[in-house]
Specification:
Elements (H helix, E strand, L loop, with lengths): L3 H26 L2 H8 L5 H6 L2 H24 L6 H18 L3 H10 L3 H15 L2 H12 L7 H17 L1 H8 L3 H23 L1
């Protein structure tokens, strides 16, 4: 008799191992054997459970994407946090995300272009959530009071994402230009978080 509990446990171990390797190395840099070794599983079980490495990657990508949306929603719909603090928290989340998972934004765009319905639906969900968020309402109030320039929440987020995410995506180029090791560059990205929030807020005043 097949022990389904052991099979389920193996499947969970493979997913967890794949998450660690994919987020560090991306789809192209990950190897099936490496995932199996980390999971302590036979590599033939990966296609058994997930069909292909690409399918397994998309499962991990969707789960990570959903997790990021949940983190963002918690920030933007917090009733007790002022608009300015929300900007800082969003910068921190975005910067930390690309430091932890540098391949995630690039592959998210890739699978959206390929028509991945799950990631597309999560993106639409995030769009609707942001436009109806407490943060968007706070921005409208600030604009109406004349303390901030007339601008929509979409423009704020584009500026924020551009400043917070691009330096991490361009890390290989910028590390060479700055003659920095990976850990030194990561520290630089962390140190920029407060400056990025200040730049975004200054552009609104």
């Amino acid at each position: 008799m097949v022990n389904t509990e052991n099979l389920d446990n193996t499947q969970a171990r493979i997913k967890q191992a794949a998450r660690i390797i994919f987020l560090k190395k991306g789809l192209d840099g990950a190897r099936t054997q490496e995932i199996a070794d980390l999971a302590g599983a036979n590599p033939t079980l990966i296609p058994y459970y997930f069909k292909t490495k690409h399918k397994l990657f998309e499962i991990i990508l969707v789960e990570e994407f959903a997790g990021i949306i949940a983190r963002i929603e918690k920030i933007v719909n917090d009733q007790g946090t002022p608009f300015e603090i929300k900007v800082q928290k969003l910068v921190d989340v975005c910067s930390d995300m690309v430091l932890e998972s540098p391949h995630l934004p690039i592959y998210s765009v890739s699978v959206i272009r390929k028509g991945n319905s799950a990631v597309i639906n999560y993106t639409k969900q995030m769009r609707n959530m942001l436009h109806q968020s407490v943060m968007a309402g706070q921005l409208r109030q600030e604009v109406a009071a004349g303390t901030l320039k007339p601008i929509g929440i979409a423009h704020v987020l584009i500026n924020l994402l551009g400043l917070a995410i691009f330096p991490a995506l361009a890390a290989p180029i910028l590390q060479i230009m700055g003659d920095m090791k990976e850990e030194d560059y990561a520290q630089l990205i962390k140190s920029r978080q407060q400056h990025v929030a200040e730049w975004v807020l200054q552009s609104l005043r």
